[in-house]
Amino acid sequence: MIEAQSLTRRYGATTAVNRISFRIEHNGIVGLLGHNGAGKSTVMKMLSGYLEPTAGLLTMDGRDYALSYREVQRSLGYLPEALPLYPDMLVVDYLDYVATCKGLPRRREAVREALLATDLGSRALARINTLSRGMKQRVGVAQAVLGKPRLLILDEPGNGLDPEQNQHMRDLIRRLARRATVILSTHILQEVDALCERVLIMDRGLLALDARMADLRHSCSLLLRVSAPCEALRHALEALPMIAGIQSQPDRGEYLLLLREDSDPDAAAGEVAQAVHATAAGLVALQAQRKDLETVFREATGSEAPE
Ligand SMILES: Nc1ncnc2c1ncn2[C@@H]1O[C@H](COP(=O)(O)OP(=O)(O)OP(=O)(O)O)[C@@H](O)[C@H]1O
């Protein structure tokens, strides 16, 4: 649906986004994660059509953004990092105004649907400057979902929200993702862990990693605990082809078995159990170890994950 090829954006001498490429095909939630200044907002602005790339190509359904600006605009909704709200307007008037600017047909219905989708019905007649930060953020999302776009671009949607408001925002994003592709940017790792099916990690303008969260969670090590550690067991484990390395703590009867990248952890666990049974070591426990996103981030960028 959306494809970026060697997308680049420079601001004078600063290269904010440097030749990044990715494809986003299906509904679901994709997280763009990185430190402050990594280039996330610049990518989001280009995806929204607000900013032109300096070089590279951006297409939606095979159509060049630059050549089909109107169609692209109609297919997406954008929540910028700085909320585009008019504080003195009533929520309903503001949404009607945005619907007019977007040139939506059946404006009233579009506004009603946006209010419903974001659970803002009871605040429709409130003046925006009387709303809490969380509610204002919700109005920002409401203007993005006007006209039911297929693509939602949400730049730091959890910005400035307290934990409860953040939980509401996450529930809202999950609901919206049932009928649209959501791309959200964040510098908060837990946000990606909680919400996203896929993560793009940006580091100093470069795309450091593009991975499905399920693949990242796929275990790559096994923790084995036995009652009577012995040399014979160690030899048996070393002989298994799917094991790339062993870190052992014999006094505790523990072995951390690092698996080769292409190995299947379930099959490996079966073979490890057989190897244990072939010795007198006595199997106590065998469990897959999850690689957390923090580790993945550190490995991809060479720096600690943002707090
Ligand atoms: N309008 C601009 N003019 C000049 N430099 C800019 C401009 N906008 C962004 N930059 C620079 O481009 C780089 C990437 O900025 P960008 O806002 O895209 O990063 P970000 O990952 O979204 O960071 P944050 O989370 O702090 O918003 C930074 O070095 C920033 O200073």
Automatic annotation (TrEMBL):
Residues 2-229 form the ABC transporter domain. Gene3D superfamilies: P-loop containing nucleotide triphosphate hydrolases (3.40.50.300). InterPro entries: AAA+_ATPase, ABC_transporter-like_ATP-bd, P-loop_NTPase. GO terms for molecular function: ATP binding; ATP hydrolysis activity. PROSITE patterns: ABC_TRANSPORTER_2. Keywords: ATP-binding, Nucleotide-binding, Transport. It holds the Pfam family ABC_tran. Belongs to the ABC transporter superfamily. This is ABC transporter ATP-binding protein. It comes from Parahaliea aestuarii. The lineage of its organism: Bacteria, Pseudomonadati, Pseudomonadota, Gammaproteobacteria, Cellvibrionales.
